[in-house]
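Q: Got a minute? One more chain.
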Amino acid sequence: MGLRRRSRRKLAAYVVGATLVVAGAVSAPAALASQNGDGAAAGAGASGEQQDFADAAHESKVPESVLMAVAYQESRWDVHQGHNTSGGYGPMSLTDVTPSMVADGGAGAVGRSDLASLAADPSLHTLTAAAKLLSVPAQDVRTDRRSNIRAAAALLASYEKQLKGGTPADPAQWYAAVARYSGSSDQSAASGFADRVFATMKAGARRTTAQGQQLRLAPQPSLRGDTGGLSALHLKRTSSAGTDCPVRLDCRSAPAATTNYQVANRPADGMTIDYIVIHDTETSYQTAIDGFQNPATGDAANYVMRSSDGAVTQSVADKDIAFQAGNYWLNMHSVGIEHEGYAAHGATWYTQVQYENTAELVKYLAAKYHVKLDREHIIGHDNVPGPVDSLVSGMHWDPGPYWDWNQFMDLLGAPTDQGGHGVGPVGTAVTIAPDFASDQQTVEVCPADDPTGATTACTDRTAPSSTLYVRTAPSATAPLVSDPYVHADGSPGTDEINDWSATVSAGQQFVVAGRQGEWTAVWYGGQKVWFDNPGGVNTVRARGVRILTTSGGTAAPLYGEAYPDASEYPAGLAPDTAPAFGRYAFPAGQAYVATAQPAHRDDFYPANGTTRPTETYIPGAGTVYTIQYDHRLALVDSSAVTVG
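A: Always. Here it is, folded:
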């Protein structure tokens, strides 16, 4: 999950959207003033959004408490415009997901020929269905709060009529219709959403929204939902026994919405699992799980780790492709683990039990799928390459500088500082290994970086870190390195916490390009960059790595994904495309580190039930190396490089 790099000008929009999937504990008010028969706040004196709910409920004959509780669970009554860039609109989070939204997001499916089919699931287009029921323009339902609530009420009523033949006044009778509103085809996920909606009605809630609207829902303590209609939804059953975790971990199941992952059969189908991606949620634990069960989010990781006690929830089976890293090809070859926490407050959220239980899980997964225990394969979301030029600058930066990679890799039995600190001669490789506690780095944290709301103004923060800044010359006053995507105008990098473009992270490996006094230079992002390294305190000599240089004295193109050549696709399957980066290259005369043999270019098409009854895995003949290029990984064709 995590945060994309955001302009501060977008702060207001972000603050609104950040509350979208928050569906945690409701606040039960003391005695709320007069109420109508189904527990909603009384219409007398109501105005604004409160009145919109009352009017829409009356128009479609939906109990007002049901309508309000559904909205509370979807948005906490906030108005938002396409939350999480994934198409949930208005306080009712009606969905209208476009192919471009699937291209950019957890799926990272840009360049794929099946974008249209990925976005075609009816649960991703409840907004257009609801608009048709009211015969109003879909744009009104997207942008007008009142129309959004009216359309959602009409949609809920249509579900109830299909199930019960009418619209009963008793809120308890609407349980199955609410479950259907979740959009999930999984019984656990759909009933879980309905349970939270009914818990909201039972406890009551009140809140002042981000737009300043004061809303209230009176409690109905004796309310119990009638679950008898669930069978008519023909939902899938998923057992918690299907979780795949080490036996010592508290591991449970909460299946993600089927639109947020693809069914596969890794690695039996030939698609290897080569990476494990560490994320943070930027939300509470339960909110992240709820979000994965919401078709509108477009995202899901395989696992979520709770901060307080290290409990684990598995949302997507390892064999399936979770839409978690923002890069479809890397999703194909990775398992994602989300951590409850906030990158701007990492040290206070990343608990020891999280580290230890995550290490237990990663060791288990790495042994099962033969994942190499190094920082080219155990990576942060911030190390994932952008799939194409247009998405590089917006890639996520979690888990951020406060994730203690040294401790974590040590818990995996693959310490970053193995062999003792120091730096070898030019042309040899080093591992970045600053001591976390003493590596005090200053970053600027702004409100847009902190969805908790605790940061009210841009503030410098100095704290232990896993990162080092890299500069254009061996001097503390030299500019930070500029990235051609993050800083397209050529301006230097910054110390903003979300600016990953001029940092190296513990465990990454680079080739020494120079030494001057206390400073060490490495090849990084096509440039010679410098970092402070007195006595080699921040590095160890890397061993057992492959040092790559270009073949033929010419620059080699770099990629974010590695699909087969068009001629290698079976008849009837349109080839996917992954063009070379336009602003990144592997220049002649430079050298970069790879730690594993090259992997085959490949692709995957899921079964679609009609023209493709089974999934199709497409191995290509060409191979690519994964290299540490800058803060992120990159892929280079093996035919374009020589191993030193």
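A: Residues 238-401 form a domain with the Lysozyme-like fold (CATH 3.40.80.10).
Q: Perfect, thanks.
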